[in-house]
Every structure is written in C-alpha cells, then in structure tokens.
Specification:
306 residues; mainly alpha; single chain
Length: 306
C-alpha cells in the first residue's frame, strides 16, 4: 500500500516489488483514503475521461472562438491539414497534436475540460490518451487505469515542487502534464514501473526552465500551442524510456531541480504577463485592444489602469 506521494522512484520501486502497475497501487490506496470502493474511484475517473473525449470532439468546431477573439479555429485548420495527407507525422503524434489544440481551444472558449493538472495544460493528457486509444484500440478500462498513474505523478510533483505557473512557470504546468502523460503512456504500452519513472524524468528535463508568459494574462497565447508541444514531448519521452534508455539524473532529483529553477525565476516570468512573450509589442497591443489602453506608462503587459 502506498504510504506517501513524495517520490516517483518510491512508487516505481513499490510497484516492482509487488509485481503490480503503479495504477493498481494508486487505485487501492485512493479507495482506502477516500473511504469508498475501488469501483467507485474508478467510475469517478471514467467520468473524467469522458469529459476529456467530449472536449476533444467539441473543440473541433471552426466557429469556436475565445471571448477575447485572439484564439479559435486552429484545431479545424490542423484537422484539414491532416486530411490532405501531406503531414510527415505518424498517426499517434498527429492525433495528439490535433487533440491538444482542440481541447485547449475549447478551454479558452469556456468549454468544460479536465484540469490535468491545470486548465493551462488541459490538452496534454487527453491528447496522449485519445491518440493511443484511437491507434491501438485500447479499452477504456486500461486508459482510465493509466490516469491513476498520471495522477500519482502529479501528486508527487505537487508535493516536491509545484503545478502552478504562478509559482514555477510553465515548466510546472505543461511540464508536469507532459510528465504525467509520458508515465501514463509507458504503462499503456507495457513498460515497467522503472520505465515510467524514467519517462517522467525525461519529459521534465525537456521542458525545464520554461516560463509562464500568457499574452494579456489569458490562457490562450502561447498556452494552446504549448499544449501541442507538451503532448509531443510526452510521446517522445515515453518512447525513449520504452526503448530502455534511462535518465542519468534520477526522477525525484529532476523534480527537485524544477522546483529550484522555478524559485529562481523572476516574477515577470511566472504568469504575471509582464515578461517573455507577454511583453512583446504585439502582445501589448493585443492586451490594450482587449482590456483598454494602458495609462500607466508601464513597459509590462499594458493591462494595468491606475
């Protein structure tokens, strides 16, 4: 039985010793912690997956637009591109990118999504899960079980570092989502718990230091496209781990490094919309158009009014 969620290596070691998947351990532990049955916990997660699939479908609407008007319609553009047969991507990666954009645009348009682990990174886990299910006809039961592995990874990251862009930058949001998704994918593709841990480490290393710089303070630009790249990161990291390649830096040390990097980031680079892409001339113009002209002379996001 899991005693704590403060080490991915511990989860992998425990699962290996008990000859179980990490998801099996998490299901059992959560049923005890929530004072309910494994079946009830599973059904709750199944509902989450249904919402993920619904948001992936409903985001494919060429009339869908965010309230700001700066995003929407890109998922249908990418879908049309894939239909033309000119993409160099394989089935899993192309579907993952499509789903990541679709879910993220649906979120920006105030649609119902699953924060996995956050709204800003909501497209990454469904992108990986939906694309794998579509390619390999994986039963819902296996998909839902893998979500418990993803959840456990997220809980460890939350305890050792952060899932918040305001605290740790986008590495804490899209990075964590990519790590969770990579771990879930490894389990779905028959990898060992140790491979799950290595996939998590690789995914986080790939995105270490990414800032959170939302244009106009909205979860739209560059968030939506970062969900697509986060899904690609997850798939690449899972494939690397499944091949037997290991992370030189142990997974928990990678998470702790992410925490330290986040702590060192300037506040302007952590969801304040005062640095990075949010401080570019185009971004400031967009912010002023959406929220009104800046009257303070600030060189940041341009949204503050004295």
């Amino acid at each position: 039985m899991i005693e704590r969620y403060d080490s991915v290596a511990y989860l992998a070691k425990l699962a290996t010793e008990e000859n179980k998947k990490i998801s099996d351990l998490v299901l059992e532990e959560q049923a005890v912690a929530m004072e309910t049955t494994v079946e009830d916990i599973y059904n709750q997660m199944l509902e989450n997956y249904k919402v993920m699939k619904d948001s992936a479908r409903d985001g494919l609407n060429d009339t869908l637009r965010s309230n700001s008007g700066i995003t929407g319609g890109d998922a249908t553009k990418f879908y049309s591109y894939l239909q033309n047969g000119t993409s160099s991507l394989g089935d899993v990666m192309s579907q993952a990118i499509l789903t990541a954009i679709s879910v993220s645009e649906y979120n920006a348009a105030m649609g119902k999504i699953v924060a996995s682990p956050t709204g800003g990174s909501c497209g990454i886990l469904p992108a990986v899960l939906v694309s794998l299910q579509r390619k390999y006809n994986i039963p819902d039961k296996d998909i839902v079980n893998s979500m418990f592995t993803a959840a456990a990874i997220g809980m460890v990251i939350a305890n050792l570092a952060s899932l918040s862009g305001a605290e740790g930058g986008c590495q804490a949001e899209c990075g964590s989502a990519a790590a969770m998704s990579a771990g879930a994918m490894v389990e779905l593709r028959g990898g060992t718990p140790k491979m799950v841990a290595n996939a998590v480490a690789i995914a986080l290393k790939n995105i270490l230091g990414l800032v959170c710089d939302p244009v106009a303070g909205l979860v739209e630009v560059p968030c939506i496209k970062r969900n697509a790249s986060g899904a690609a990161n997850a798939i690449i990291s899972a494939e690397i781990a499944l091949s037997g390649i290991e992370s030189v830096i142990p997974v928990d040390e990678v998470i702790e490094a992410m925490k330290r990097v986040g702590d060192m980031m300037h506040p302007f680079l952590k969801e304040t919309a005062k640095g990075g892409l949010a401080a570019t001339p185009t971004a400031i113009k967009l912010a002023n158009k959406i929220f009104g002209s800046n009257t303070t002379g600030c060189t940041g996001c341009g949204r503050c009014v004295k």
